[in-house]
């Protein structure tokens, strides 16, 4: 069931800013929506064995109770004999299955029965509530016996097994924030928590103290000194110790982590943070998100992104329902195959060559200015910008992941190959590669399968794609397009008429089919702004509001009615 990791490989890349005239790309990490937080007396439901319950039904109740970890799984232990409860170890990994099947095994007696419990594994809930997609089969034998006239579990394997519906019912995903290796971006580490509501803030802070998940660690190294600890919430103040040797800038980074983690969970500020008996930050008794607005992992919904489209080799800006062709080479040359444009006007494009025997060209520049050729190849995937540094990634000829960057010292653009440590046996053609806004994650489509990986900074200028995991395996080889949404999830286009567009959560914990209305598969391009989703299907470029729409139909983009175009959302 587990995937083996490949041997680490090192790939060199240069440091700097891409192409003459290209500025750094201002960006924030995977954004999320703030929601209100309402403390409650208790979030834990009460589940106890029902008197006279049949053995198979009691066993199903046990699995429902197993979703409640409170008091060392006290609710689940109530369904066991005294001996079984003492022997059961629930601290093994928690398996998440699609559903739990229960079948009676032959040979039972009026006082003893055996059951086969089985299901398809969809993931594992690891330490700290980190979800990891897995695929495999689960099967176990459960022994039950009569105790005082009631059925109780007398023997069961270690660990906890949850149905996916119970994970959603009893747990909630929250966003823990950590800084990237350069200390510039807040990167989301998504966790699933079951907790009494009044303890949620302390639970979130405790996860910050424990550091990022193992999978994300290569992109967000944990630099918090070992002696730093959280000692609790008292009189409206979150209290810490061990900060005596921590620099002021490191204190500010830690404060930003705490403030944005609590705020994204809907916990209202201002927040009082105290270290070793004094304010964590000098002259700041309380802190709010306004104190760290430049690090905001949120994106405003209104007017945050411009929509460009690529049609017949030319790029246009869509503004107010009107199509406005760009005045520079992107809008006039007529040989653009694919492109990426940033919010501040940097662009990189793949250009066709007039000579059919010549390779295509990767070219970069700024809107309204001149571009310069970077590299050539037979084919390129759509390029993707790194955060801030404006380095560009693309895949040449389906197999070589390339990173192009301009040296700040010499002005020369260098391109180096990045090695991706793919799962064993994955050697296919990479048709899509897209970096997340923070640059900490990458999504790839390999022979129609969806993969995500972590971008590791091994040294200045060095990158590698590690900890690659396949998501949404149920889609088979039908994936055609994928990109990151502003909230950190993925929008995915497929060749399936049943599920042409899907939302895949950042941790791979769920796959949701979006509205099928008015879409004709295949969906060959996807994009997302904070308030709109865009897809290119077999007929046209369509859009759908990302939230709050009562109309489930995808509609043609105003100004592009009847036009099949590729969407480019400036980020």
TrEMBL record:
Its main location: membrane. Residues 1-19 form the signal peptide. Residues 176-280 form the GerMN domain. Keywords: Cell membrane, Lipoprotein, Membrane, Palmitate, Signal. It is found in: Cell membrane. Belongs to the LpqB lipoprotein family. This is Lipoprotein LpqB. It comes from Corynebacterium stercoris.
